[in-house]
Design brief:
Elements lengths: L9 E2 L2 E4 L3 H10 L5 E4 L16 E2 L8 H11 L6 H21 L5 E2 L2 E2 L1 E2 L9 E2 L5 H14 L4 E4 L2 E8 H4 L12 E8 L4 E6 L2 E4 L20 H9 L3 E2 L4 E8 L11 H5 L3 E3 L22 H15 L4 E4 L5 H7 L1 H9 L9 E10 L2 E3 L11 E3 L4 E2 L12 H18 L23 H17 L6 H24 L4 H22 L23 E2 L3
Parallel strand pairs: 1-12, 2-3, 2-13, 3-9, 13-20, 19-21
Antiparallel strand pairs: 4-8, 5-6, 7-8, 10-11, 11-12, 14-19, 14-22, 15-18, 16-17, 17-18
Length: 538
Amino acid sequence: MAPITPITQHAFDVLIVGSGLAGLSAALHLAATHRVAVLTKRGMSDGSSAWAQGGIAAVLAKGDSFDAHVQDTLVAGAGLSDPAATRFVVEHSPESVDWLRALGVPFSEEDGHLHLTREGGHSARRIVHVTDATGAAVQKTLIEHVRRTPNITMLENHTLVDLITRRKLGLPAADGQAANQCLGLYALDEVTDEVHTFSAPHTILATGGAGKVYLYTTNPDTATGDGIAAAWRAGCRVTNMEFIQFHPTCLYHPHAKSFLISEAVRGEGGRLLLPASAGSTRFMPQHDARAELAPRDVVARAIDFEMKKGGFDCVYLDISHQPLAFIREHFPNIYARCLELGIDISKQPIPVVPAAHYTCGGIHTDLAGRTDITGLHAIGEATYTGLHGANRLASNSLVECMVFARSAATDIVVTPFPMPPALPAWDESRVTDADEAVVISHNWDELRRFMWDYVGIVRTNKRLERAAHRIALLQGEIQEFYAHFHVTRDLLELRNLVQVAELIVRSAQARHESRGLHFSRDYPEMAEKAVPTVLTPD
């Protein structure tokens, strides 16, 4: 869809797309010196950050060390975590926790000290948390501060359509600037049903991951890979998109949508059991010496193996050997939610299944959050920073958001750019309202089902080929729809999900080994050398 004549545009110093922990942290860091707009496609608290249960990994206990946290992360990353990026995040994690405490986040304490729990893959207790609802508590605190900060404009119900760059507009490079520079973006205002133009010398993508590309996910409906797809279309590299983390324990219940059973349940002694029909026996020790405390990819594959081997709909996670008072203190939300569904976790095991949880790859960035496009930063789950490698260590995600939010904000403060020129308006002169919305819903359902079946926990060349073929067909249909009809949030999200699906499949096809979260029956061994999968736009 070609833009047309310039009109009055919404101008800010910094545009931030996404209102999770990464986006709001960056906004607060920048507000003292910049006019910031935060665009979010639903409400401020509707992203993945608010769903995070476990906590934030940081070296805070006596006897723990940065070296130990780094080593745990490198082991979980299966040789693909970048050592420099890993140390950068680990060494800045305590100050991130201190910052949140200063803002008033009510972290759980015990005997006057922060209560630290342990999760799979960690060699020490280093998870600071707010019972089992850390993300929600952090988001609530940040939102309260953002609403009180005059220099931050919150724009809810604004969906990113596309980034605006010099290259897309055919403009020559500005003096001393790179050829491809981000000048702003187009966003759909769902209240007015109009696409508005936003300009700024700096844009930050903090749009989260892409879990909704799969049929079963722990992610909220907002996790549609918007920033990853938009950055790719604008000319950014993406890296390691084949590494999709499947959380081992999502509640299996017909009336529970995407409810996560925290890693901390296993960290506090939870045991994985086969169904009663198979003797309710524990199975993780047969798969890994670390048993239930093995990294997520190991546990997810073990559950997948046992379910397929036995034809089970789910397995069970049992924490009932812990006292009721302990369970209610440490897991109040999990306890209450399960009880609503008729499951008393103090007396019976919890039915669980693996589900798509975290996008370990994404937009390629450096340690300042810079992308391949001048004036465009990316932070949080939408990115590949080098931290997560082939598998994310539990509770490293929230701290990554905060560390890179600060580093990106610092880079923006010390790297001023002039305001962009007047930008073209969005052209809707040749489109009509869609008369077959069922096409979007059908394609959305088809995509998520074949991604689950063909590009899930265990992959084969044949399955990937089938997925690639169906993605190509869907892309043709969606592009025709996009070119001829008025854009809607559903259409924009579907367009982005299909683009992300293509990147996941292409990356998976390029990796001829099994490593971390990518397991291929055709290449079951791990290659001697660990090499990232980097895709570059044509």
